[in-house]
Specification:
Number of strands: 11
Largest sheet: 4 strands, antiparallel
Distance between the termini: 36 Å
Structural class: alpha+beta
Shape: extended
Length: about 400
């Protein structure tokens, strides 16, 4: 209840809902490699959070000699971050101003969540996702641009007027003959008179356009290799895929997505939840009365799920796994982005509503089919448990 009340009000600077706030942070991590989130307490107001671009994190000019500050992150003797030096204004707002301690804020690390993916020990700043494939992206852009220009040129029609007469200054003669209009517009049905000795010659640059498909796929493979995805996922092109290959591509891609989802939950969402809940308890919210510290941080986040590639086959497989005991309703519902308890409550509520409505309308109650496992009688099958199933119907 507390979270539902507060979640869409904790990003007032950018006026974002909680979902929009998550999208913003993930986008900046992908583009810039990192983003900072600072918790803000103001007297008389519930806590809220400020999203800070990585460009504002830098070492002040008068603190360059301090060996413990690296790229705006101050560390203790063990290398643990203890403070962040954040410029009060974005460096693009005033490019002439130097960043000094006078126009910078030193914020304690406990109030800041530094979202970045760490690839080596002691890494201070984040690295953009696409840093290894920037040239490939540039090459793909140039390839598409060159192909577009080539197609435009191939579609052009050039007309030249050939004359046998001698002229001293072609520019003056041409301008005078054609009313000082050097570029004649060719329109359907037009009649253009020529002078004696002149004729029209056309140039149609109808050269073939190269096949772009193989080049685009090659670059998409390189991009996918850097991001841990297949080229079909990069281009969202499954026209050449079978059911099995498409399913394999999606399952492999989801492994990459799950790593990022788990990282975002553990790194940021749990931190955000704990601060909001603790702030509400300190402000005397009666809904948190009697809640211990351990209970306060117990939360389960369910990421967005994925629809099945083939619903019928996937549902049959999930049913078999459920009967075998190798999965449970929580995992099946969680894989689709749903909470199994909420679905159970909703289903039971619908059943109760249907029973009530049938009774009001004088309709017979719906019969529910249920499978009951009945153990065999003792002494049969040489003592082996050969369970049989009997279907019964009840109202």
């Amino acid at each position: 209840s507390v979270w539902a009340e507060r979640r869409n009000k904790i990003s007032p600077v950018d006026n974002l809902t909680h979902g929009e706030s998550q999208r913003l942070k993930i986008r900046k991590v992908i583009e810039d490699g990192e983003v900072l989130v600072k918790s803000v307490w103001m007297r008389g107001e519930p806590i809220w959070f400020e999203t800070i671009e990585a460009e504002r994190l830098a070492t002040p000019q008068d603190q360059v000699s301090n060996a413990r500050i690296r790229d705006g992150v101050e560390r203790d003797g063990w290398g643990r971050p203890i403070a962040y030096w954040i410029q009060k204004q974005h460096p693009g707002d005033n490019i002439t101003a130097l960043m000094t301690t006078a126009n910078a804020m030193k914020i304690d690390a406990k109030y800041v969540c530094h979202l970045k993916l760490t690839d080596r020990p002691g890494q201070t700043r984040g690295v953009p996702f696409c840093h290894a494939i920037l040239q490939d992206l540039r090459d793909l852009d140039l390839l598409m641009l060159a192909s577009l220009k080539r197609t435009q040129i191939a579609a052009c029609l050039s007309a030249f007027i050939k004359s046998d007469s001698q002229t001293v200054n072609m520019l003056d003669v041409t301008a005078e003959k054609y009313g000082y209009i050097l570029d004649q517009a060719i329109e359907p049905g037009m009649i253009f008179k020529l002078f004696p000795g002149e004729e029209i010659q056309t140039l149609i640059p109808n050269f073939p356009t190269p096949e772009l498909g193989p080049f685009i796929i090659m670059l998409a493979r390189r991009i996918g290799a850097a991001l841990g995805l297949t080229w079909q996922i990069i281009l969202k092109d499954f026209s050449q895929s079978t059911y099995s290959s498409a399913r394999t591509d999606l399952l492999e891609a989801r492994q990459t997505y799950r790593i990022l989802q788990s990282w975002f939950i553990e790194k940021y969402l749990n931190w955000e939840w704990a601060i909001v809940m603790n702030d509400a308890r300190l402000r005397g919210d009666p809904r948190l009365a009697g809640i211990t510290d351990d209970e306060l941080v117990k939360v389960q986040w369910i990421p967005n799920g994925w629809q099945w590639v083939d619903p019928e086959k996937e549902a049959a497989a999930s049913k078999i796994e459920l009967e075998m005991g190798t999965t449970c309703l929580r995992d099946i519902c969680g894989s689709k982005g749903n909470d199994w308890e909420e679905m159970m409550d909703q289903r039971l509520e619908e059943e109760a509503r249907e029973m009530k409505r049938r009774k009001e309308l004088g309709l017979p109650q719906k019969q529910v089919e249920q499978t009951v496992i009945i153990p065999p009688m003792e002494g049969k099958n040489n003592g082996k448990r050969d369970l049989s199933r009997e279907r019964i119907f009840h109202e």
